[in-house]
Amino acid sequence: MSQINLLDLVSNKVKNLKAYQVETVEEGIKLHANENPYPPAPELKKIIQTRLEKLELNRYPDPDCKILKEAISSRIQISPKQIVIGNGSDELIQCLMQVFCDEGDTIAFPEPTFGMYAIMGKGMGLNIQTFPLNSKWNFETKSILEKLIASHTRIVFISYPNNPTGNCFSQNEIQELIENFEGIVVLDEAYYDFSGQTFLSQMEKHNNLVILRSLSKIGLAGLRVGYGIFPSILANEINKVRLPYNSNSISQIAAAELLKNFSMVQKQIDSIKDERIRLLEEFTKIKSINAFPSDANFILFQTCDNGEKVFKSLLENDILVRNLGTHPMLKNCLRVTIGTQEENDQFLDRLKHAIK
């Protein structure tokens, strides 16, 4: 019988990583993962079910996702040749690193931001260059361009709106970055449907711009559907490293029908945006809470006292939010996903109890 030390065989770059932590609870109100709190509309479910009845599960899915690409193309007026479908936009982030970076190359992003940029980059042996956000959760391009050039940065990832701060960065600063950075600028627009702000029109002028989007935030989190919009020549390169059949048949069908019947989803998005306004107003009435403006479907807020204590109190009362307090720039900060009116009311009630 062979008994070897398996950990000795694990790459050091993986040993030094910490896995992306996702808390969950079996029961209670989940306001931690930036999901749509509403299930798909009954009418949309019927449409999808009708399509699924004809599905041949014994066959591989369409490797090119033609129907889904056409649905995306029709909605955003971009050629299907520029679109690549991912198993969530996370997969496309990894593909971008594979295509543009060799081990030891550098990627960059603001800090704090979406944690998977760092985890994927480090896992692939890349160097990480971060630039801290200021007190208004923004950055100045002039102050970071020299660092990007000096470190030979290959890709800059910009979450827009930014997760976890919730804001869209200055359009002027991003514009300056796109125009002056001689590398790839990736705008991760996972929360576009809640902000309405995009740089999609800039793709005709700038061939170093890539835009990522997701359907996870608007109702299909369980099916993992993301897509990237690339210059056509780059889409071909991404497809070289994208795994075959990376998008399953059920996800392709459901995503295409959601996009074709988007008015049903838009009602839910509008409701979330209305609740975002209401929650922000309610936060102003709580003296020991500082809530930051949000363009997304979540709100970052900071407690004046012990954020960990507030987090645990909420959890004990069946409310799960995201605790971000371990990050040095996010001391006593929590992030709450905007839920239904009823969920938000319960959250506010238990938050007030938690900070007493």
Please tell me about this protein's structure.
With 356 residues, this protein is an alpha/beta fold. The chain folds into 2 domains: 127 residues, Aspartate Aminotransferase, domain 1 (Alpha-Beta Complex); 221 residues, Aspartate Aminotransferase, domain 2 (3-Layer(aba) Sandwich). Helices cover 39% and strands 17% of the residues. The protein is built from 13 helices and 13 strands. The strands form 3 sheets. It has a 7-stranded mixed beta sheet with strand order 2-8-7-6-5-3-4, sandwiched between helices. A 4-stranded antiparallel beta sheet has the order 9-10-13-12, covered by helices on one side. Strand 3, helix 5 and strand 4 form a beta-alpha-beta unit. Helix 2 packs across helix 10 and helix 4 crosses helix 5. The chain starts with 11 loop residues before the first helix and ends with a helix.
Question: What does this entry show, briefly?
Answer:
This protein has helices at residues 12-15, 42-52, 66-76, 89-100, 116-123, 141-150, 171-180, 192-195, 232-241, 249-260, 262-283, 307-316, 341-354; strands at 29-30, 83-87, 106-111, 127-132, 153-159, 184-188, 209-214, 225-229, 289-291, 298-303, 319-320, 322-323, 333-337.
